[in-house]
Amino acid sequence: MTTTSKHDERIANLTFASVYPHYITKVEKKGRTKAELHQIIEWLTGYDEKQLQKLIEEKVTFKDFFQKATLNPNAELIKGVICGYRIEEINTPLTKQVRYLDKLVDELAKGRKMDKILRTP
Predict the structure, then answer these.
(1) Which end of the chain is more exposed for a tag (fewer CB within 10 A), N or C?
(2) What is the C-alpha separation between 103 and 56, in angstroms, rounded?
(3) What angle do CA 46, 49, 54 make, to 5 degrees?
(4) Rounded CA gap, 54 and 109, in Å?
(5) What are the CA-CA distances from residue 89 to residues 2, 4, 78 (Å)?
(6) What angle is formed at CA 61 by the lines to CA 4 and CA 107, rounded to 5 degrees?
């Protein structure tokens, strides 16, 4: 299943700051912590807590968020369906990266063990 250019553009222009509170709510509602959320974001993007806070304050778009990120080389091990899309079939790199993050947040909220979420052997 491929994404449309309109869908990709909408995701690119969405601000990380607008979605971040929803990530927190989702994981905390399921008994996980903001610290765990930050751990998976740092694993995927390389952003530490201070950098993440700065990006939130600057209200960067997902496009800028991922352009500045250093994506974890194991990110391509993230597979499955999220938001109706099979991650490994998404052709647009930015949309795929956003869905990687969505999938990690989803796995955290579902109670998956951290070593599994972070794809450690």
Answers:
(1) C
(2) 20
(3) 95
(4) 25
(5) 7, 13, 12
(6) 75
Q: What is the pLDDT of residues 45-99, one digit of tens each?
A: 999 999 999 999 999 999 999 999 999 999 999 999 988 889 999 999 999 999 9
Q: What is the DSSP string of the chain?
A: -PPPHHHHHHHHHSBHHHHHHHHHHHHHHTT--HHHHHHHHHHHH---HHHHHHHHHTT-BHHHHHHS----GGGGG--SEETTEEGGG--SHHHHHHHHHHHHHHHHHTT--HHHHTT--
User: CA dist 72 to 8, 9, 30, 38, 118, Å?
Assistant: 22, 23, 26, 14, 10
Q: What torsion do the CA atoms of 95, 120, 108, 99 make, to the nearest 10 degrees? A: 10
Interatomic CA distance for residues 16 and 91, integer angstroms: 21
Note the CATH number of domain 5-111.
Answer: 1.10.8.290
Domain ranges of the chain: 5-111
